[in-house]
Amino acid sequence: MQAFVKTDRAPAGQLLSVPEPRAKDDEVRVAVKASSICGTDLHIWEWNEWARSRVKRIPMIFGHELSGEVVDVGSRVRSLRVGDHVSAETHIVDGTCYPCRTGRMHICEHVEVLGVDRDGVFAEYVVLPEMNAWKNDPGLDPALASMQEPLGNAVHSLLPEDNIEDLAGKNVLVTGCGPIGLLAIAVAKLLGARQVFASEVNPLRIGLARKMGADLVLNPAEPEARPARTILDATDGNGVDVAVEMSGNPGGLKLAFEALAPGGRVSLLGIFDGEIPLNVDDAIIFKAARVHGIYGRRMFETWFQVKGLLGQAAFREKMAQIITHRLPMREIPRAMDLMRSGEAAKVSLEARW
Ligand code: NAD
Ligand code: ZN
């Protein structure tokens, strides 16, 4: 089969012909219909510092956002059949460690990530454990189906726990409008948020944030910009009830806490480049801020929430607007250039080789 393989501990990857994988007893083999590119894939492609320390297994097929069709089921698989349409939960867990046994599988201590620790989806076929194959509505556009993973990140950030207060009537801030931030804006609006504020520095993404329904998009890089002040003024001096940090930039983090109402909650999804300064007294303690670290998606509560959102035509139409490019798989090198340059929001890959 054709696959994009990270062959060396160096930038880029190669389109190669490799043997087809076979499903073990508890696995399914999936024919890839569509994928999409995530920041992690770009890091692996560019072989940045994170990738150098994180990726152990070379050669490896990378890519993890998936939509495909089951073509083979292992002898112990019960919940899936040949022909089922599936996406992948990319956290492959052991089921036996402390977090797994206490209902928090998504933070498994021995997690293996698809396309990072084991062969991923930039290929004609991929094998997945039965548990990681999420069954889709067969009518769902494969491009949207493959974006359920980042959509799940957005949903998990906005609703990190079962008994958390909902967003109806609340003021929400999204810092950083990459694909996940953009999706978070659309979800917050759909869940009834009163005002959704967003911050972003890239002009294309500022435009998309407005299309997703943000009430006010602030560009902290503009001279004279005082985003925290602007948000406080627009909320009767109270600040936002919920902030989701999705930029991975220290400025985004600072704004999330400065604009937060006392007793509000912040979800931290963006990954920072090493240690960053934060005035913990003012940001968290004196504000009694509730801080949630966000890793992946809850398995599988978040996936059920995502299914509910994708059941709504209006939401699917909005989501499709963040796809700025649709390319065949063989153009992955060009897709990586588009991602790096900031000219793209989401690049969708079709299984044409
Ligand atoms: P992305 O890099 O495309 O988006 C980040 C956005 O933040 C960009 O559009 C960028 O222009 C913007 N930005 C940069 N500086 C800013 C500033 N000072 N203020 C406002 N915006 C600013 O990434 P993404 O794919 O949307 O993911 C968002 C973040 O979440 C990334 O940091 C990513 O590494 C991280 N991530 C975390 C998890 C997890 O499980 N915790 C999963 C996926 C992604
Ligand atoms: Zn575990």
Question: Quick recap of the structure?
Answer:
With 353 residues, the protein is an alpha/beta fold.
Coarse structural class: alpha/beta
Corresponding CATH superfamily of the largest domain: Medium-chain alcohol dehydrogenases, catalytic domain
Q: List the ions, cofactors and other small molecules found in this model.
A: nicotinamide-adenine-dinucleotide, zinc ion
What is the gyration radius calculated from CA atoms? 20 Å
Quote the average pLDDT. 97
Q: Classify the beta-strand content into a percent band.
A: 25-35%
The major pleated sheet works out as:
7 strands, mixed
Level-1 CATH class name of the largest domain: Alpha Beta
Q: Helix coverage percent of residues? A: 25-40%
- CATH architecture label of the largest domain: Alpha-Beta Complex
Low-confidence stretches: none
**Count of helical regions:** 13
Number of strands: 18
Shape: globular
From the 3D structure, determine the CATH topology of the largest domain: Quinone Oxidoreductase, Chain A, domain 1
How many separate structural domains?
A: 2
N- and C-termini, Cα separation = 10 Å
